[in-house]
Amino acid sequence: MPRKVMISQPMRGKTEQQIRAERSEVVKTLTEQGFEVIDTIFAKSPDEASRIPVFWLAQGIDKIAHADCVYFMDGWQDARGCRIEHQICIDYGVNIIRD
User: Fold this and answer.
1) The pTM is what?
2) pLDDT tens digits, residue range 9-54?
3) What is the pLDDT of residue 50?
4) What percent of the chain is modeled with pLDDT above 90?
5) Which domains does the chain have, with CATH numbers?
6) What's the order of all strands across the beta sheet hosting 36-38?
7) What is the C-alpha to C-alpha distance for residues 97 and 76, in angstroms, rounded to an integer?
8) Rounded to 5°, angle at Cα 78 from 57 and 65
9) Distance, CA of 43 to CA of 17 (rounded, Å)
10) Would you list the DSSP string of 69-86?
11) 3-state SS of 21-61?
């Protein structure tokens, strides 16, 4: 069974197309290494939640719960949500892969 990996990526201010383009090479490499990549580009949220960054963070944390490891893309240190996800991995023993 392939190991599941989540990608933590700075997304603030980026379009879905930009996000997918930035991660495409990472997804390809991880897939070639036998990982199953968990999709973290979420469908649109209800209008009232779309303005609440913590709503999106909660979606990411839920995906961490289903991952064997988390891959942190370049720039994660500068993104508040990525830093929180990183700390969760440390605190809960989820394996970390850094770009």
Assistant:
1) 0.87
2) 998 888 888 989 999 999 999 999 999 999 887 666 556 556 678 8
3) 60
4) 65
5) 4-98 (3.40.50.10400)
6) 36-38, 4-8, 69-72, 95-98
7) 12
8) 30
9) 13
10) EEEE-TTGGG-HHHHHHH
11) HHHHHHHHHHHHCCCEEECCCCCCCCHHHHCCHHHHHHHHH
